[in-house]
Automatic annotation (TrEMBL):
Domain of life of the native organism: Bacteria
Chain's role: Subunit R is required for both nuclease and ATPase activities, but not for modification.
Matches recorded under InterPro entries: DUF559 (IPR007569), Endonuclease_DUF559_bact (IPR047216), Helicase_ATP-bd (IPR014001), HsdR_RecA-like_helicase_dom_2 (IPR055180), P-loop_NTPase (IPR027417), Restrct_endonuc-II-like (IPR011335), Restrct_endonuc_type1_HsdR_N (IPR007409), Restrct_endonuc_typeI_HsdR (IPR004473)
Naturally occurring in which organism (per UniProt): Flagellimonas sp. MMG031
GO molecular function term, any single one: type I site-specific deoxyribonuclease activity
Region (Disordered), start-end ranges: 443-464
GO aspect biological process, one term: DNA restriction-modification system
Catalytic activity, reaction form: Endonucleolytic cleavage of DNA to give random double-stranded fragments with terminal 5'-phosphates, ATP is simultaneously hydrolyzed
Family: Belongs to the HsdR family.
Quaternary structure and interacting proteins, as annotated: The type I restriction/modification system is composed of three polypeptides R, M and S.
Protein name according to UniProt: Type I restriction enzyme endonuclease subunit
SMART domains reported in the protein's UniProt record: DEXDc
EC numbers for this chain: 3.1.21.3
């Protein structure tokens, strides 16, 4: 059977790309010393000949001298900053290179294009592997590079899916290394891809690991099958010629942000390169297509989209929304040992089936082996779907009645039982798995039942047409109706960036229209404007912010062009009911943020007409702002973006904007990793809101109606009474005290930030005062210092207490920068209205709500904590007012609109999951009294951690299982804190984490966190007893002396042998030896291979119970002495490391040793080293001509020294392999 290797995965990727029309080139063949050279040296990155050919082909009217000058300009890009170089090149690539030349006696300006974006087939697409780059003496060879017209646009790093240590994380680390040591390659890079053949993700130069995202569709119409690898889907969907060029030109932004140092006054500008996720890419192209339809414009199809437009995916509707939840199944603990024995015995058919479903590889479902349900042990149980799978052999022929009785019992619990004959498993496994894949009980179209603590499983369809949600789509709308439609993408999934991408593309598609971006609040206008202003390269113009009505009128009277920002309130007429017509042009596109607001209406209503002193002087009729917008811009096309769905009763939004263009709901965003889950915790009982207050909250719900109240409405008795109750002195003290305790407990286990939403500015100010009374060190008058701030505006009539928290626009930007910076000491902000929509601080994990909210406002507010940040497991919404019913209503209208996935999940579910994982980990300590740890002294605690480590290492596959389960427990615990049940088990979690930390230190597999420690937000719960001024060494606690000189010294080995905990000692020694052998493997292939085999055989004997822990320790100590002897032999022979490596290669057989004396073998090794070094060149290991030459030289040298003829072939191969292992050192690179 052919094994899966990194090389075979590379070949598969290349074949997929060839199928897409790429030309394959083996990179060594086009090197300067290759068979068909296209590079002048290994330092040259661009394939200049191909680039020159493409430039001539694409720009036939530009003189050749100007073409050459354009190519020189991109070769001259050079600054110390990689991202700066990359941005400079991207601008030239997507905007064209400006040149000038003489023609007909006149100086003319023109643009030279490196790529023909309009005609993909007019470009030269190449996939090359093993492309060596040398920079500053460092030699690197990325796996696969995609060139377009000689430009290396995409770098792909591959790992082996069959190797548990070769993960996409290691591929990411490899890319990071390339960026550091061969940055020239990445000057021209659009994006990078990491894959192990199964998983595949794409990201940019500035993307951290958590921002590398999968591409879920090959064609934008439907989700790829789960039987198709992510790598294949990504290549077909993202790297086809049309999509690749579309992404490069329209879907990459370089976002800028400024930060001023308060002490020095120096302003630094940071840049982040962002690439559209798959849902943004397809939605924006749909939106552009719909906008063109709505204008009645006869433009050709937009680049990167089909002639026929969007083909919706007819999704099968869920058969039933109400499926049973399995919060607990009957369990007989007496069967536990029997189940364990069955798992260990593992008959062959069950093992074969287990290999198909373990580790969630079947549809992502979780299967258990030998699961106890009631008084039965079932073969396999799927927790996600409530399915039992039985593998039936011949023994079941005589157990018909028993099986029927058992099945009836299991089915009475609501479970589905599937029987599979043992012969089918043994002879036709593929048929078995196909049957299960299509089985209704395991169907992805149903929401499966779930066990306690298991997050709801969502459907796997990702490319959703609006119709598949049961809502109307734009495809039914007529051409030229001026209604572009609505894009509903859940909050936190990149909606603002999608609006930027849309604007950048529509200005080209509609021949420079005027784009008007509308929000309904000034702070939202600022936030969205900042996003656009930081992406001017893609927009190809500077956006403008409207100051007042007159400014709006002036900006809209231009003939074309411009991206302008305004609030909808500026469309209110000064006199009468008609807003003057500002422009009748048809090339105006109005983009509305949060298009569902009630302001976007046509309906008339009568209101009081007041004079300048506020006195009522009569009545007047006013309309929704939509009417005034249509009055001002009668022929504009309107398109809406929203993070929450349109309510079924909302007739205004469809009337203004039309139907849905695209839907991306909470369920899909969480599944894709675009957002994290939000959990809900009620702390109403902690702050004693009176019954009168609770009643007022309920009554006020009816008046809120999903929107903010006007000042007039706030003056009403109910609001005033409620504000007084919520803001009473005693209650504010309670809230302040609870927030300090709650947030402090959260911060202990969960790095990040929090936001407090207050009902009024007065309450915000009072709450701040109360918090800093309890925590005076949190306060600072300096804007750039302090742990807590209030973000709001005030007027002169508000009084000094509120006025001192007044902030200007620039001050709020400073505070926003501090809040977004995870390293800044600002951790908590108090707000009333500001920052509840559009504000994006990924590290924020807790939102405290002490304000009546509902509907869209509530859903948008809670989304402040759903941003992805490192390994953040979720956000938490803390309720001090009893908004649970409002959350349910929000969920109700969300579901009615077709949305899938809960906006929030009760914190109790996280607690359940935590308790479930706690039980799993506790069971691993069966028979070990870890409870004694909590009453022990510090020294005893350290000894107990070692004893616990010894215990876990003694379990079957104990270390791996324990690390995985404690990691899951830690994540659930971080969300559950500070729930009472979480705090009750804090000490246990601390102990489990301490043991995990010890085990992870000895995990040399590369599967641990290592340099990803910086990518974690989960903090280990620290046992304060282990934090002291006195340094207590772990070796001392174990009863051995710490090695001072060498870890392989005789004294140290004897100390290890005498350790009380044999399993720990074995684990320590195994890791040390592995590291020592690995360090020598490159320089001495033969000896290291022999030593590695000895180590593996010894460990295998121990696992097979052939050797005891003490006996295997003896064997490993002998092995360590072999390593010491190996080091000393080279010195005795007077050989360098490399010479000794070749010596062991030729002295690796008895006949050579007998025929040739040691001195002659030594001389042969020295000559071989010299000759191989003289004839090796860069990349010789992958150049057959150089390899063949070296082979001849080695054979001649062996014959010359009288090497045994029958062993010459083997010795030649061994020497060649050793030379390959030290190839870089031999070539001096």
């Amino acid at each position: 059977m052919t094994r899966i290797t990194e090389h075979s995965i590379e070949d598969f990727a290349i074949k997929l790309l060839e199928h897409l029309g790429y030309e394959y080139i083996y990179a060594p063949s086009i090197a300067h010393d290759g068979e068909n050279p296209e590079r002048s040296s290994y330092e040259e990155i661009l394939l200049t000949h191909r680039m020159a050919e493409a430039v001539r082909r694409i720009n036939p009217t530009v003189p050749s001298a100007a073409q050459e000058e354009a190519i020189k300009e991109i070769q001259r890009i050079h600054s110390p900053e990689l991202l700066t170089n990359n941005e400079s090149f991207h601008r030239l690539l997507t905007e064209g290179i400006k040149v000038s030349y003489q023609k007909d006696g006149q100086q003319r300006g023109d643009l030279v294009w490196l790529i023909d974006f309009n005609t993909p087939e007019n470009n030269d697409f190449i996939v090359a592997n093993q492309f060596t780059v040398v920079e500053d003496g460092v030699n690197k060879r990325p796996d696969v590079i995609l060139f377009v017209n000689g430009i290396p646009l995409v770098v792909i790093e591959l790992k082996n899916a069959a190797d548990e240590n070769a993960t996409i994380k290691s591929a990411f680390r490899q890319i990071e290394t390339y960026k550091a040591v061969i940055p020239s390659l990445f000057t021209y890079n659009a994006f990078t891809i990491i894959s192990d053949g199964l998983e595949a993700r794409a990201g940019t130069l500035s993307s951290g690991m958590s921002r590398f995202m999968a591409w879920k569709s090959a064609d934008g119409k439907e989700e790829a099958s789960h039987l198709v690898s992510q790598m294949e889907t990504l290549i077909n969907g993202m790297l086809n010629k049309e999509t690749l060029l579309d992404l490069v030109r329209h879907f990459i932004v370089f976002e800028k942000s400024k930060k001023e140092d308060a002490k020095t006054g120096v302003t630094t500008i940071s840049t982040v390169k962002k690439l559209a996720a798959y849902h943004q890419y397809y939605a924006v192209n749909r939106a552009v297509e719909s906008a063109i339809r709505a204008t009645g414009h006869n433009s050709p199809p937009v680049e990167g989209w089909s002639q026929t437009g969007v083909v919706p995916n007819p999704r099968i509707k869920e058969i039933s929304r109400a499926t049973k939840n399995y919060f607990s199944l009957p369990y007989n603990p007496k069967l536990k040992e029997r189940a364990r024995e069955l798992r260990k015995a593992g008959n062959l058919p069950e093992v074969l089936f287990w290999n198909q479903v373990k580790n969630k590889q079947f549809k992502g479902f979780d299967f258990d082996r030998q699961k106890i349900i009631g008084n039965y042990i079932v073969d396999f149980y799927c927790a996600n779907c409530g399915v039992v799978v039985e593998i039936d052999g011949s023994s079941h022929d005589n157990k018909v009645e028993y099986d029927a009785e058992r099945d009836a019992y299991l089915e009475s619990l609501g479970l589905t039982v599937i029987h599979i004959p043992v012969n089918d498993v043994m002879k036709q496994m593929s048929s078995v798995m196909n049957m299960l894949y299509d089985h209704p009980a395991l169907s992805n179209t149903n929401k499966p039942p779930r066990l306690s603590g298991t997050p709801p499983q969502e459907g796997n369809f990702v490319m959703e047409s609006p119709e598949s949600y049961g809502v109307a789509g734009v495809k039914s709308q007529p051409k030229g109706d001026r209604k572009g439609g609505v894009v509903w993408h859940t909050q936190g999934s990149g909606k603002s960036l999608s609006m930027v991408f849309f604007t950048g593309k529509i200005v080209l598609a509609l021949d420079n229209p005027t784009v008007v971006v509308i929000t309904d609040r000034n702070d939202l206008d600022d936030q969205l404007f900042d996003t656009f202003a930081s992406s001017t390269q893609l927009l190809r113009q500077e956006p403008k912010q409207i100051e007042n009505r007159n400014d709006l009128k002036e900006k809209l009277k231009v003939a074309s062009g411009g991206v302008i920002f305004t609030t909808i309130q500026k469309f209110s007429p000064e006199e009468g009911n008609v807003y003057e017509t500002l422009s009748e042009r048809e090339n105006i596109v109005v983009i509305a943020d949060e298009a569902h607001r009630t302001q976007y209406g046509f309906k008339a209503k009568t209101v009081d007409d007041k004079d300048e002193h506020g006195n009522v002087i009569g009545k007047k009729t006013v309309y929704g702002f939509a009417k005034y917008m249509r009055d001002a811009l009668p022929n504009a096309t309107y398109i809406g973006f929203t993070g929450t769905p349109i309510e079924s009763t909302d007739v205004n939004t469809p009337a203004v904007f039309g139907n849905y263009i695209d839907v991306y709901d909470i369920a899909q965003a969480v599944e894709d990793g675009a957002t994290v889950r939000i959990y809900y915790e009620s702390r109403l009982a902690k702050v004693n809101l009176s019954e009168e207050g609770k009643k007022l909250v309920e009554e006020l719900d009816d008046e809120l109606d999903g929107e903010e109240l006007t000042e007039t409405q706030k003056a009403k008795a109910k609001w005033t009474q409620l504000e007084a109750l919520i803001g009473s002195e005693n209650r504010i003290k309670n809230v302040a005290n609870d927030i300090i305790q709650h947030f402090g407990q959260r911060q202990e286990v969960f790095e990040g930030k929090g936001m407090i939403v207050a009902m009024s500015r007065r309450i915000a100010a009072d709450l701040y005062e109360e918090i800093i009374k309890l925590k005076p060190e949190w306060h600072s008058d300096d804007l750039d210092k302090g742990v807590i701030k209030v973000v709001m505006t005030s007027s002169s009539s508000d009084g000094p207490k509120i006025a001192k928290h007044h902030t200007t626009k620039q001050q709020r930007r400073t505070l926003a920068d501090r809040m977004k910076d995870p390293d800044d000491e600002l951790k908590l902000v108090i707000v009333r209205d500001m920052w509840l929509t559009g504000f994006d601080a990924p590290s924020m994990h807790t939102l405290y709500i002490d304000k009546p909210m509902k509907g869209h406002n509530l859903m948008q507010a809670i989304a402040r904590v759903n941003r992805v940040y490192k390994d953040k497991p979720g956000g938490l919404v803390v309720d001090y007012l009893g908004i649970a019913s409002d959350l349910k209503k929000a969920l109700s209208f969300y579901s009615d609109a077709g949305g899938k996935g809960d906006p929030t999940i009760a914190q109790a579910q996280a607690v359940e999951l935590m308790l479930e994982k706690l039980e799993v980990v506790s069971q691993m300590y069966s028979g070990f009294p870890y409870e004694d740890y909590f009453q022990a002294e510090t020294g005893q605690k350290l000894s107990m951690i070692l004893a616990a480590e010894e215990h876990i290492l003694g379990l079957e596959d104990g270390k791996k299982r324990y690390i995985n389960e404690v990691t899951a427990l830690s994540k659930a615990f971080a969300i559950a804190v500070p729930h009472e049940q979480a705090m009750d088990v804090k000490d246990e979690v601390s102990f489990f984490q301490a043991v995990k930390a010890r085990l992870a230190k000895f995990d040399g597999t590369g599967s641990g966190r290592t340099d990803e420690e910086i990518e974690t937000t989960i903090r280990q719960v620290i046992d304060q007893a282990l934090v002291s001024e006195q340094v207590i060494d772990v070796f001392d606690a174990a009863g051995i002396k710490k090695p001072d000189i060498s870890i392989l010294s005789e004294d140290f080995l004897m100390e290890l042998k005498g350790m009380e905990h044999k399993n720990v000692a074995l684990e320590v020694l195994k890791k040390l030896l592995n590291d020592e052998i690995k360090a020598r493997s490159k320089k001495n292939l033969v000896k290291s291979k022999s030593l590695k085999e000895m180590l593996e055989n010894s460990i295998k004997k121990y696992h097979n119970k052939i050797l005891t822990a003490a006996e295997v320790m003896d064997e490993l100590i002998k092995l360590s002495k072999e390593i010491v002897n190996m080091d000393s032999e080279a010195k005795k022979l007077g050989l360098s490391d490399f010479e000794y490596a070749f010596y062991t290669a030729v002295a690796n057989n008895d006949s050579a040793k007998q025929l040739m004396q040691q001195d002659k073998l030594r001389e042969l090794a020295v000559i071989l080293t010299e000759r191989v070094k003289q004839n090796a060149s860069i990349d010789w290991t992958i150049k057959e001509s150089v390899r063949a030459k070296l082979k001849v030289i080695i054979k001649r040298t062996l014959r010359q020294y009288g090497y045994p003829p029958d062993m010459q072939k083997l010795a030649t191969e061994t020497v060649l392999k050793q030379a390959e292992a030290i190839a870089k050192e031999l070539t001096g690179i």
